[in-house]
Amino acid sequence: MTSLRGDARTAARTRxxxxxxxxxxxxxxxxxxxxxxxxxxxxxxxxxxxIFDAKDGVGIWLLRRAGLxxxxxxxxxxxxxxxxxxxxxxxxxxxxxxDKLSAYEEILDRRGLRDEAVCFIGDDLVDLPVLRRAGLxxxxxxxxxxxxxxxxxxxxxxxxxxxxxxxADLILNTQGKLEGVLQRIGRDPV
Length: 190
What we know:
The protein is an alpha/beta fold. The protein has one domain (2-184): HAD superfamily/HAD-like (Rossmann fold). Helices cover 45% and strands 15% of the residues. The protein is built from eight helices and eight strands. The chain has helices at 2-22, 54-65, 79-87, 100-111, 128-133, 145-150, 163-174, 178-184, and strands at 26-29, 41-43, 47-49, 69-73, 92-94, 118-121, 136-139, 153-154. The strands form two sheets. A six-stranded parallel beta sheet has the order 5-4-1-6-7-8, with helices on both faces. A two-stranded antiparallel sheet has the order 2-3. Strand 6 (118-121), helix 5 and strand 7 (136-139) form a beta-alpha-beta unit. Helix 2 runs parallel beside helix 7. The protein starts with a helix and ends in a 6-residue tail after the last helix. The model has no long low-confidence stretch (mean pLDDT 91).
């Protein structure tokens, strides 16, 4: 009997997760530990560098091609991050943000969206206020344990190494948009 209850709970959680994924129209994320592995390269002269995963970039590009909005909310700033976000056509770029929840609320208010329409990917304690509000709260596999506990979904991949692509594929597959995007590859301008 215990396994039947467990199966019923698992099925209910799966239905709830699918429902949350179907509602997503905006994918927001932190940068360090999500778009990157969290490493920051300090370069002589005061510059910073980051390494971004190309597959995660393709995931963001696919989301955009499917008509979803994408963006970042980060407590840090760097030209590398700004450049990468622009290259990917991200519609929301919020850097050096002290209060991520306020930035999140401003985005939703300006765009006329509700929490249910947002997927937020965060990896550390400063992301918890937004994760607690977003309809789909996602943590990379290597996120802080407190963040993983509160997330609706924990990816198999770590931050900066495919977590975003995993989320993008889930959203596009669940919303039935992946095939349409794939059929247009090569015909749409990048």
